[in-house]
Amino acid sequence: MIIYKMYLTDLGLLVAMYGFEMKQAILDDTLTGPVKGGIYENLIADILMKSRHSLHYYQNKNLEIEFLIEQNTKVIPVDVKAENNRSQSMDQLLKNENIPYQLEVMNGLTSTNADQFSVNRTGCKACTVSIPLKYMHTPSEIIQIDDVENTGRLIAAYIRSVSNV
Questions:
Q1: Stated pTM of the model
Q2: How far is CA 151 from CA 17, 26, 95, 144, in A?
């Protein structure tokens, strides 16, 4: 089955089409539900299109990725979420592949490439996959080989989950 998604290229026009209560919820930052997600998706679609990216969507029974960007023979998945929570797709992948993990909660800047879009204005959800280690950027950096292997398994599983694109 082929699924098409349509986006308005004018976010202001999209918001103007909603009633007064919806506009007030946007201004008060109390908007919830699928409308909020739709507005966020439209915003990201608009940004990507203005950056001259073609928009590709992917969905199977376990995974939905709003945008796949092709760049220099690589495919970059962009999973858009308006909520302030974790990615269900990533959680499902970790569970299906039985990959151990731990969460690192970071407030503000992470000193990674994700900073550019995760903290800009109202932000955009970013998932940074990192390997736990001690004494980073020193000659005595320590890392567990199991952690490296499990991180590789996670990345490989994620690539496999979107490889039918």
A1: 0.49
A2: 44, 38, 14, 11
